[in-house]
Amino acid sequence: MKSAALAICLLSFIGFSTQEQTPQQIHQQLLKFRDECMKESGVEVSAVTSADQGQFDDSNKKLQCFAKCFYQKQGYIDESATLLISAIEAKLPAEHKEQALADVKKCEGMSGVDACEKGYKIHKCFFENIRARAAAAQAKAPTA
């Protein structure tokens, strides 16, 4: 199976759904974006897989451009990798909007030497926020 953790991670972070698409359709669209961006950036599958697991190679320019491409195709960033907060907010379900929007805004000030690096830093910021929120939720979960 192709590594889909980046797509799944993003889907769980944003938690978005639309009335027009089922979760499976959204997942398939994210996989399509991932495949297109891997081809466009020329990134190695292993680099994406490692990043999916939290092992980021900050020197990998192709990985940086992959991240920018992936978020741009979703409409979360523009060509210069500026977060499009209103576009993201429009995709958030009401029950998760406040928390998810707060997480997104934590990543709003990312900068880089170019748009690829900035998009990559946004991805890392999202990933770190997801991981922190998941760890906090797990710590609160009752143990059996």
UniProtKB/TrEMBL annotation:
InterPro entries (alphabetical): PBP/GOBP, PBP_GOBP_sf
GO molecular function: odorant binding
SMART domains the record matches: PhBP
Alphabetical GO biological process terms: sensory perception of smell
Pfam families: PBP_GOBP
Principal localisation: secreted
Any one annotated GO CC term: extracellular space
Family statement drawn from the similarity comment of this UniProt entry: Belongs to the PBP/GOBP family.
UniProt function note: May be a carrier protein for lipids.
Protein's name according to its UniProt entry: Uncharacterized protein
Native species: Brassicogethes aeneus (Rape pollen beetle)
